[in-house]
Amino acid sequence: MSLRKKISFEDQQKIRKRANNLCEYCHTSEEWQYVMFTIDHIIPVSKGGTNNLDNLCLACFHCNRKKSNKLYTFDPLTDKKVKLFNPRKDIWNDHFIWSCDCFYLIGVTPIGRGTISELKLNRERIIHIRGVDVGVKRHPPKCDNIQVSR
Asked: 102-132: per-residue pLDDT in tens?
């Protein structure tokens, strides 16, 4: 059994800065949450992952819990096995787009669709939070793509 080495405060701050304080899966902003986000091992320690910065990302509690030690999922459209989104290797805007109202995340690739499904990125609670955040103009993040028409 491998022992987990604590991730230093300095490295945690580097990860937060690199992620612009966004969960690197669902793009929720840590700034408006009551609980600090967690540091996720993209390749889980249980599967040989390390504490190297290239294997770490910022994740909200829900995304981190749903991802657990998974590396793969299934594309709900094709039912084919696909990799989960990897924030260090994949570009977020290549796989995801916001619905016109910015409440729902839409997967535009098998990886995007599978990740949304596996991590439950359109769960009822987060849709409600997004709705409130849209109303006060703090969602979606400025760097994200938005669907132009339905």
From this structure: 999 999 999 999 999 999 999 999 999 999 9
Cα dihedral sign for 42, 47, 52, 54?
Answer: negative
90, two tokens: 């994949």
Helix, strand, coil % (nearest 5) of the chain? 35, 15, 50
Contact 81, 69 (CB under 8 A): no
Q: How far is Cα 124 from Cα 145, in angstroms, rounded to an integer? A: 21
Q: Is 18 helix (H, G, I), strand (E, B) or coil?
A: helix
Contact between 107 and 84 under an 8 Å Cβ cutoff? The reply is no
Closest CA to 85 of 101, 108, 52, 104: 108
User: Among candidates 20, 62, 8, 55, which has minimal Cα distance to 38?
Assistant: 62
Q: What are the C-alpha distances in Å from 15 to residues 26, 31, 116, 144?
A: 16, 15, 22, 19
pTM above 0.70, yes or no: yes
* Integer Cα distance of 149 and 94 in angstroms: 18
